[in-house]
Amino acid sequence: MDNILKTENQELRLTIDQVTALSTTLTSILVQGETGTGKTELAERIHKFSGATGQFVVVNCGEIQDSLFEAQMFGTKKGSFTGAVKDEKGLVTLSNDGTLCLDEIQNLTDKGQQALLRVLDRKVVRPVGGKVEESVSFRLIATCNIDLQARILEGRFRQDLYFRVCEHIATMPPLRERTEDLGTITIDIQKGIQKERKIPIKELTPDAWEAIYGYDWRGNIRELKNVLMTGTIKAGKSSRITSKNLFNKPILESMAKKYGIFEVLGFTKEAYPTMSTVMDKVKYLYIRRLMIEANGNVSEACRLGSMTRTSLYQYARRLKIDLKDF
Fold it and tell me: Which DSSP letter does residue 320 get?
């Protein structure tokens, strides 16, 4: 997604500015955040701006078994086992002069953590079946969707490794805390679906937009993409996507019953949204409601909201509301 890191959210802007400034250094960065918030995309941005000549290599730490860890990470030499007919580079070696991104590092096993720590300390790897150690130099970025310090207290993550991977910590906010970006991200996802499925972009009806802004997106951008894909398919030959295409009836009913004004504005038990986020969402929902009540008539919306046409157009432009949708 092109726009996943294009944001109006001040906290995320600050985070992106900080890691971009660090991109030309070898500072190791831990990118934390819920699943589906764009942690890997941020890691790739750091690599892109680093000027590194090597590759950006992503390692899914949950998929590497202990028995294959050294072979996959450090490579193998010809003849090291039955079927090894040639030398094979490992993922660490492939990231030489580039960036090694350890995705969901909390899933590394004890053996994996120990082996990785050895590489970070000595900057060398020895391929399976090899007799000579090979020097490696790479930028390390790790991602996680849990509190690693809690894992340390539980004895499930090495503290010495933690300090190696988190010289700087960047946090990706959940989608429910960056609702000012929902419109842009939604449209970008639709463009991706258009390109992938070779079909025209379907228009989201006003009630579909209300559902999108009213849902809490615990699966974040990944869940939004899945819902939009499903909605596009359910809409069939229609050129428009409705709320019923996006969500089933029980979800729509539960949303109507469950969420009061504070939940809709992004408040949770764990965190409060920023003031600017709350105000933008209030204005967004207000303008949309005015246009719905006025049946798309701008003059009537202005009368209902006691505002000038100039003010309405300014709000709509800043909040990325297309008044023609109504």
Answer: T
